[in-house]
Predict the 3D structure of the following.
Amino acid sequence: MIFGIAAQKIIQPSVTFVFRQHCGFRKISPLCTSTSIRQTISKKYSKMTYQIEERGSPNTIDYKLYIKNENGVVVSPFHDIPLLADNTGKVFNMVVEIPRWTNAKMEINTKSCLNPIIQDTKKGKLRFVPNVFPHKGYIWNYGALPQTWENPELLDEHTGCKGDNDPLDVLEIGYKVAKRGEILKVKVLGTVALIDEGETDWKILVINVEDPIAPEVNDIKDVEKHFPGLLKATVEWLKIYKIPDGKPENKFAFNGEPKDSEFALKIVSDTHEYWKTLLQKENTDGLSIVNTSLNNASTIDGEKAQAIVSESLPLSEPSPLLPEVDIVWFCIKSHGITFKL
């Protein structure tokens, strides 16, 4: 399918979501049955809390967001934050990179020590995801699962493509707009197999366990029941969001059909194992495996970690956003011709 693109500024329409109220919570069956994942968790993580330290000026290339544990020690969101949030095997930690409805393309910097969250750049310019009508920015809270890695050396059996060399991406669908750097406790609902410029880029659908409707949403079929239209919008968004940058539609395995929680949990388990192999590599091809908690050759103490943070510029006022961030793009079906109005 070929799309033409037209752009104009519009006022963001108001959107109302209606949720059913619940007078109680029913028991949820454990979603993670993988022994390999369950063995990595300890009770000491069950009540772990985190805080952030921002450095530099937001909306500039100098901005960095570091995460600290409850003791004030800087941790890597890639390596130190455990995959599982408790010892039940059903609740995972999610690192929020991009709050819903925002445009700045924030990501865990896998190549820098302690992996701060930064804004991605392209040709020296900050990246902002375009607003492709009817969507405004990201339509979920977007982030990553810690201690996972999509291996770029292995062909994925489902997609036929190698991994994208990043932690697993997560799309959180609950009602709350999360904060950048927030660590959410989530459960896995399903996944979409995106093929992004020839690389496997799984998108794991999750919901915050503290969401009022979470007890009712346990698998991919429940998403369509309680969030009608969201799965279709998710596939559409992922398919077309790069078109305004002059790129073709993204492709999917399974023709874009979302897979269920059991399937998704296998992806989580596999990528957790790949992450373990990453830690054992002598040559990580530029990825930083520096950490403050794993007690391996790449572990540093809290004092050294804070010294790394202190090398960055202190937090200052945000730089003003360019008006282009609010442009809305329209994708128009044409007769084999791509055009702009």
Q: What stands out?
A: The two ends are 19 Å apart (CA to CA). The chain is about 15% helix and 25% strand.
